[in-house]
């Protein structure tokens, strides 16, 4: 699993959910500090789970709400 490739998948989901803020968001930016609310964040996680065919660990991604964390969790889930 190539990190840049998975990150692109996660970013594509984010662009679909929040196109107005997608361009200014870096992988390690906190999604909540960047304007996402809990509803938007859950929509993103469900979108990533569907697109990547994985189940994400909710506690972990809520504790560190970043595209980079979601990407790492996708990679780890695909290894299982």
From TrEMBL:
<feature type="domain" description="Carrier">
    <location>
        <begin position="1"/>
        <end position="78"/>
    </location>
</feature>
<protein>
    <submittedName>
        <fullName>Acyl carrier protein</fullName>
    </submittedName>
</protein>
<dbReference type="InterPro" id="IPR009081">
    <property type="entry name" value="PP-bd_ACP"/>
</dbReference>
<dbReference type="Pfam" id="PF00550">
    <property type="entry name" value="PP-binding"/>
</dbReference>
<dbReference type="InterPro" id="IPR036736">
    <property type="entry name" value="ACP-like_sf"/>
</dbReference>
